[in-house]
């Protein structure tokens, strides 16, 4: 893996930085929300699944290993794809997980190509309606779309909102649970259900639950370079001001079956 300069580390967005530290679960609902997402996805062996914005490939690997899916793990960021490729290979899943370059706003896949499409913490980075329409487009009629997104669990203070959306994740936009339902419904999806919970990815409890056996290696890496320590020292106090107000919403939806075709 290429070593980044201190200046490059300073410029990383928080998610890429966590990936560089070796963190495996990089979304607001943590492993618990992925467990639930996979339960709702109910993927069957041999089904074709897209994990868009796959990060370091953790959910894609689970889809292949635990559910027998044929997975496309796609991400716009070369750094994430590099780590996903290494993790897929280390997991011995290269024959069932293909790591690809794709942008959620314009997916390079034909209409109705996938049985299920997953986007964990991706849509909120881009024009949400366009991204949701793309997720719906590449899903087969009767197929499932699942996403996790950030939401405010409590109305944030002005300071918490400015720190999180202005400094930690500039450019990110997220909505209320009702607005997320509207965005996915507006993409033509049906049977939309949502579940929500607290943001625990960067609490001590959430970190240990998410990373399990990898936790010591992530902590060791975080203190292995002054550039990482400085980045942590910048990030953590800001995160802790926003965390009390942050949550996640898990959206589960279905693309309507084609007229006259029975669903599974
Ligand atoms: C918060 S991380 C989530 C990673 C992974 N889904 C997970 O849950 O661990 C967001 C991911 O979305 C990717 N991403 C951001 N914008 C994207 C876009 N327009 N198309 C595809 N991926 C994108 C980022 O590179 C990053 O890997």
Notes on the protein architecture:
The protein is an alpha/beta fold and 264 residues long. The protein has one domain: Rossmann fold (3-Layer(aba) Sandwich), CATH 3.40.50. Helices cover 43% and strands 21% of the residues. The chain is built from eleven helices and seven strands. It has helices at residues 6-11, 14-20, 30-41, 58-67, 78-90, 128-138, 158-168, 177-186, 204-211, 215-222, 226-242, and strands at residues 48-52, 70-75, 97-101, 114-120, 139-152, 190-198, 246-254. It has a seven-stranded mixed beta sheet, sandwiched between helices. α7 (158-168) packs antiparallel against α11. The radius of gyration is 18 Å and the shape is globular. The mean pLDDT is 94. The structure holds S-adenosylmethionine. S-adenosylmethionine binds at residues 15, 25-27, 52-55, 58, 75-77, 80, 103-105, 120-122, 125-126. The site of S-adenosylmethionine (SAM) has 21 residues, from loops.
In short:
The protein has eleven helices and seven strands. The protein has helices spanning 6-11, 14-20, 30-41, 58-67, 78-90, 128-138, 158-168, 177-186, 204-211, 215-222, 226-242, and strands at 48-52, 70-75, 97-101, 114-120, 139-152, 190-198, 246-254. The mean pLDDT is 94.
């Amino acid at each position: 893996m290429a070593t980044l300069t201190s200046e490059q580390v300073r410029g990383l967005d928080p998610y890429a930085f966590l990936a560089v530290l070796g963190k495996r679960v990089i979304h607001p609902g943590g492993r618990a929300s992925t467990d639930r997402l996979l339960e709702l996805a109910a993927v069957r062996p041999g089904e074709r699944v897209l994990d868009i914005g796959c990060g370091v490939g953790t959910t894609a690997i689970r889809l292949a290993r635990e559910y027998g899916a044929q997975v496309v793990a796609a991400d716009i960021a070369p750094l994430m794809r590099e780590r996903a490729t290494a993790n897929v290979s280390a997991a011995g899943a290269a024959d069932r997980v293909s790591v690809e370059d794709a942008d959620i706003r314009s997916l390079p896949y034909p209409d109705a190509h996938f049985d299920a499409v997953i986007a964990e913490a991706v849509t909120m980075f881009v024009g949400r309606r366009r991204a949701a329409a793309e997720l719906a487009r590449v899903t087969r009629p009767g197929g499932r779309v699942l996403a996790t997104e950030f939401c405010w669990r409590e109305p944030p203070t002005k300071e918490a909102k400015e720190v999180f959306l202005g400094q930690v994740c500039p450019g990110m936009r997220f909505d209320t649970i009702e607005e997320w339902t509207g965005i996915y419904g507006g993409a033509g999806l049906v049977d939309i259900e949502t579940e929500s919970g607290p943001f625990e990815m960067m609490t001590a409890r959430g970190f240990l639950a998410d990373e399990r056996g990898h936790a010591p290696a992530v902590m060791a890496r975080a203190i292995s370079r002054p550039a990482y320590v400085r980045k942590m020292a910048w990030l953590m106090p800001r995160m802790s001001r926003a965390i009390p107000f942050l949550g996640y919403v898990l959206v589960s939806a279905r693309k309507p079956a084609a007229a006259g075709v029975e669903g599974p």
